[in-house]
Amino acid sequence: MSSRICPACGAQYLAWVTRCADCGVALLDAGPSVLDLPDDEQLVYELAEWTPARRTLLESLLGADGIGHAWEAADLVVHVDDESRVDALVDAIEQGGVAGAASAEQAGLDGDQLVYELEAWSVDDRHKLGEALLEAGVPFVWDASDALVVSADDEDAVEKILDAIEYPDALEEITEDEGADDAAQDALSELFLAADRLMHDPSDEDGTEGLVKAAELATEVGVPYGLAPATWKAVVDHATELRGRLSAEESEKVVESATALRSLLRPYV
Asked: Which of 50, 113, 120, 145 is the most buried (most CB within 10 A)?
């Protein structure tokens, strides 16, 4: 049976699995690798000091640009002929965005977009903003005039980050009921635990029961603190799909859906 491999950690999966359960990145068909090239044709970028969010962003941009690559732990390996293209992406991410190194489409900005004119912001504040957006998993680009471009779906998350940087000493106004947020956080955690169980055993009774209850709760609560509305919608949609496959007793598809849900939730638990 054919297999697929995670380009970040090297884990192998069956052919029908699409994303790595631990890294969250898209799997590649097993085959010739840049690691098989002669040493003098390989170029290594040591990125151990980067956050996982930065490496994940770089992975998505490399894929969008069609740049062949492989990961050895936190080290990125590419062909020497791609040095200038990879340098541009690495430099742009280190400067706090993808500033000119990728298009909005490549950065994952689908649908309607918002533009924030930040010409009055200092370089330091712009750097903080880029770091915060990367840590929050919010795709963005700096356009030619240094304005910030984000997806309209991420507006709430971006506004909170902007306020936190622009008004660091302001008291945070409490607008959400703490009990409601606790319930949302519980739903998030229970979905992750259930998906983890079902990914390894689609017939796990505790996983099945936990998933059904958590999926129902997820449709009733608000967005958990720290998640963008679009991200939470994707979580609920994945949970609903998984619940339907459990009812249909489709073991192979249960594992696929559980793996995708766990990957989506992993950065938030």
From this structure: 50
